[in-house]
C-alpha cells in the first residue's frame, strides 16, 4: 500500500514528522515499511534520524538510477540501498549516496522520476510512506507518486493564516486529488486553540469527516532537533506516560488507513463479482 503525506499549500506543517511516526507505527504491527520522499534531497529526514549522508557510502545516485533503468536491480537487493531504522522499517533516500570525493551527484527531474516509478511499482514492502516534500502539485514527481497513491494524508494545522492559504487553493487541490481516498490530519493540535469544526469553517466545510489529530508534544521538536526520532518512537511504543496522547493519536490514524485499505479490497472484490 502506498501512502502519501502532503501539505500542498505550505512548508512547515510537519509532513516528515507525521510520515515518520506513521511508518514506525505500521512497522510495529509486523509489517515491512519503507519511508521515502519525492525530492532528490530531503532537508529534514536524515537530521531527524541522526543519520549522516556519508555513512560508509561510496556509491552515487546515478549508478543506482542506471541500474534501475537497465533492469539490474533485484527486489531482494533493494534493502541494500536503504538505511535500516528498525528490523521492519527502512528509509530510502538519495541523500544516502555520495561520490567517492564526498560531493553530491546531481539528479535531474527525469532521473528522479525513474527512481520514484520503481519505488511505487516494485519496492517489496507492505507499506511505502511518501513524504511529499514538494508543494507544487504540477511537478511531475508529485503527479507520478499521486497516481500510485492508495491513501492520501493531507496535513493541516490550526494556524488561521495557513488554513486561509489552503482555502484559497482548496478547489484546485481537491480536483487534482479527487480520485484518491484521503484523510485529514490536524498536526500540532491543541484543544485550547479550537476544534475541528472551527478549522473546517475557515475552509468552508460544514461537516468535517475523516479528520484526525496529532496533538502537540514538546517531545517531538526536542527529539527531532537531536536526531532522536527513533528514540521518541520507541517511547511511544512503550506507552511512556509523557507521550501517551501521541500513541493514541497515531493508532487512531492507522485505524483510518486500515479502513481505507479494507474499503478498497471490498471494491475490488465486488468488481470481480465475488
Level of helix content? 40-55%
Q: Remind me, CATH topology?
A: Rossmann fold
- Tell me how many strands there are: 8
* Poorly predicted sequence stretches spanning 5 or more consecutive residues: 99-103
Identify the CATH homologous superfamily.
P-loop containing nucleotide triphosphate hydrolases
Number of domains: 1
Q: Give the CATH level 1 class.
A: Alpha Beta
Overall mean pLDDT stands at 89
Major pleated sheet: 8 strands, mixed
Through-space gap between termini: 22 Å
How is the largest sheet built, in terms of strand order? 3-4-2-5-1-6-7-8
Q: Per DSSP, what share of the residues sits in E-state strands of 2 or more residues?
A: 15-25%
Order of helices and strands: EHEHHEEHEHEHEHEHHH
User: What structural class do helix, strand and pairing data support?
Assistant: alpha/beta
- Total DSSP helices: 10
The shape is globular
Radius of gyration over all CA atoms, rounded: 19 Å
* CATH architecture annotation: 3-Layer(aba) Sandwich
Summary keywords:
alpha/beta, single chain, 8-stranded mixed beta sheet, globular, 10 helices, 15% strand, 274 residues, Rossmann fold
Amino acid at each position: 500500500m502506498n501512502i502519501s503525506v502532503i501539505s500542498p499549500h505550505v512548508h512547515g506543517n510537519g509532513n516528515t514528522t507525521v510520515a515518520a511516526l506513521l511508518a514506525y507505527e505500521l512497522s510495529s504491527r509486523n509489517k515491512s515499511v519503507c519511508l521515502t520522499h519525492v525530492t532528490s534531497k530531503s532537508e529534514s529526514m536524515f537530521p531527524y534520524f541522526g543519520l549522516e549522508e556519508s555513512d560508509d557510502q561510496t556509491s552515487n545516485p546515478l549508478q543506482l538510477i542506471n541500474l534501475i533503468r537497465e533492469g539490474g536491480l533485484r527486489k531482494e537487493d533493494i534493502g541494500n540501498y536503504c538505511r535500516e531504522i528498525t528490523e521492519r522499517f527502512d528509509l530510502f533516500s538519495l541523500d544516502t549516496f555520495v561520490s567517492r570525493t564526498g560531493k553530491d551527484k546531481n539528479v535531474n527531474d527525469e532521473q528522479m522520476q525513474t527512481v520514484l516509478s520503481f519505488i511505487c511499482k516494485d519496492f517489496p514492502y507492505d507499506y511505502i510512506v511518501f513524504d511529499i516534500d514538494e508543494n507544487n502539485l504540477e511537478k511531475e514527481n508529485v503527479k507520478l507518486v499521486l497516481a500510485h497513491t492508495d491513501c492520501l494524508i493531507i496535513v493541516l494545522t490550526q494556524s488561521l493564516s495557513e488554513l486561509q492559504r489552503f482555502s484559497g487553493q482548496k478547489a484546485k487541490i481537491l480536483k487534482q486529488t479527487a480520485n484518491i481516498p484521503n484523510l485529514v490530519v490536524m498536526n500540532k493540535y491543541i484543544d485550547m486553540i479550537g476544534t475541528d469544526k472551527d478549522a473546517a469553517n475557515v475552509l468552508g466545510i460544514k461537516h468535517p469527516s475523516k479528520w484526525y489529530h496529532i496533538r502537540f508534544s514538546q517531545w517531538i521538536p526536542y527529539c527531532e532537533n537531536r536526531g532522536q526520532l527513533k528514540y521518541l518512537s520507541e517511547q511511544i511504543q512503550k506507552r511512556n506516560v509523557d507521550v501517551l496522547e501521541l500513541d493514541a493519536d497515531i493508532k487512531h490514524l492507522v485505524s483510518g488507513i486500515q479502513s481505507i485499505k479494507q474499503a478498497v479490497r471490498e471494491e475490488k472484490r465486488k468488481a470481480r463479482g465475488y
